[in-house]
């Protein structure tokens, strides 16, 4: 733990203890003590708002968050139990799975998830790409529904929490740059010399 982070923890803990002196550490959920957790970006509420803005008539953020909570660092989810996944996303009743599948399709179309076929049909497996990269790509493509206000708010919050993936080179740009750099010496050697 860095000194800066340690000071922030001490400050916020002192504030919590001041406001709620009767709330003991045992009353709190502690990821270091209890299993059953996954990491999420601290920008997740904004990511979810953006997803709902992009899927306005059929908000898909609960579907996305339920998938995220099923994944761990590998960012893979088996979709073998669609009924359970639909329920976790908040869908019940006769149309639950169908509604969940519609939201999954919207998430895949926008790039928030990648799906692969398998024993349960076209949606048997899912991978969850970095949502910050997905949103940056959508912004570059001027995706309808992604407002400047929402995007700028994400950038601001990302800066506050040091989310470097909101500013680093996108993977495809890095690959293209590296390929161009690798080809540059070969091109320079192959160019004819002027007399």
Briefly characterize the structure:
This protein has 195 residues and is mostly helical.
Name a few traits of the molecule.
195 residues; mainly alpha; Arc Repressor Mutant, subunit A; three-stranded antiparallel sheet; 8 helices; globular
The third-level CATH topology of the domain at 43-160 is Arc Repressor Mutant, subunit A
How many individual helices?
8
Q: Which segments are poorly predicted (pLDDT under 50) over 5 or more consecutive residues?
A: none
Strand order of the largest sheet: 1-3-2
What is the architecture of the domain at 43-160 at the second tier of CATH? Answer: Orthogonal Bundle
Structural class: mainly alpha
The biggest beta sheet reads: 3 strands, antiparallel
What is the string of SSEs from the N terminus onward? HHHEHHEEHHH
Strand % is 5-15%
Radius of gyration (Å): 22 Å
Q: State the total count of DSSP E strands.
A: 3
Let me know the average pLDDT.
92
* Relative helix content: 40-55%
Shape: globular
CATH class of the domain at 43-160: Mainly Alpha
How far is it from the N-terminal to the C-terminal residue, by CA? 62 Å
């Amino acid at each position: 733990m860095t000194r800066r982070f340690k000071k922030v923890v001490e400050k916020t803990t002192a504030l919590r203890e001041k406001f709620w002196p009767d709330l003991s550490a045992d009353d709190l959920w502690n990821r270091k003590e209890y299993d059953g957790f996954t990491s999420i970006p601290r920008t997740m509420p904004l990511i979810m708002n953006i997803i709902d803005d992009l899927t306005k008539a059929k908000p898909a953020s609960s579907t996305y968050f339920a998938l995220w909570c099923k994944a761990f660092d590998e960012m893979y989810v088996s979709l073998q139990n669609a009924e359970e996944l639909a329920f976790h996303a908040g869908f019940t009743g006769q149309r639950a799975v169908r509604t969940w599948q519609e939201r999954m399709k919207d998430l895949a179309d926008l790039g928030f998830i990648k799906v692969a076929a398998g024993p349960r049909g076209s949606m048997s497996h899912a991978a969850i790409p970095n949502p910050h990269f997905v949103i940056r790509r959508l912004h570059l493509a001027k995706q309808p529904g992604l407002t400047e206000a929402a995007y700028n708010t994400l950038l601001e919050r990302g800066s506050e929490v040091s989310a470097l993936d909101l500013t680093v080179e996108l993977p495809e740009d890095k690959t293209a740059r590296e390929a161009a750099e690798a080809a540059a010496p070969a091109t320079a050697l192959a160019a004819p010399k002027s007399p």
